[in-house]
Description:
The chain is built from 10 helices and 12 strands.
Amino acid sequence: MKSFITFFLLCLVSVVHALEVKKLELNSAFLTYYQNHQDSVSPNIENLIITVSGSERNAETYLKTMDAITKKLQVNEKTLIIAPHFKINGDVIAANEMVYSYEGWWIGDQTLLPNKLNSSFDSIDVLIKKFSDKKRFPKLKNVILTGHSAGGHLVQRFALGTRLNEAKLGLNIKFVVSNPGTYVYLNSKRWQNEVLKVPLRPSCEYNRYKYGLDKLNPYMSRTSIPLMIESYLQRDVTYFLGEKDVGNVEQSCEAQFQGANRFVRGRNFKAFMDQEFPRHGHEMVVVPGIGHTQHGMYNSREATETIFRDL
């Protein structure tokens, strides 16, 4: 019995250590995030994974998924995993904790806190800069920013709008966009009867942000559109699609201009990039037999061979 209690306590300590709760301070406000290691291990960290949850905002679940994968790949000891917890109206919010509208955090909108200008994308910028500090993380070289579903919305748009300079930070940053409902298109063309063209007399503002580059929010407006596009083309972006992700998804007029479901929309967007911006180096990876599940996507053989291959 005593040995069982000792084993149970050791397991409990292990679980606690696997989920450090942290606060990111930003302009007199803060964002809660979780990480898998204590700060004392920072000199040994070579890889950083920032994993962004779907609309359920179950950041702990996403952290545990990545933690288990890196243990399986035997890279956990040198890999720091961060899972930001974006909160929305209706959640339990502490004083000065950043809160967003239901979709606002997906697309880089400003916090709803009065007199605060923090975009959800500002938080990702600050997180990456924080961990690029060579005094604290001298060995860090690889960063994977990945999100599934709503988190995929965030990663694709952040990869377009961020002004981070990977070379100056001394980091290799991979952006993995997994099964989002829609994409930001880089011009006003859309696929119609297998032809890419500007729609005639559209019945909605199909090219407004979050679907295109019209009427950008403040964060996305900080950079000129040509510079945003040029930076995006040069980034390491992977569109990570579940072959069976063909179920319930947004069916607004704007979304339908991108295709019938998530899988089709992902293929359409990659085909758009190939035709309109052929010098990009982006990759599309399809996971056979997998639908809208972050666990199935990230635990797939395809993820091991692409997303995590450089860890």
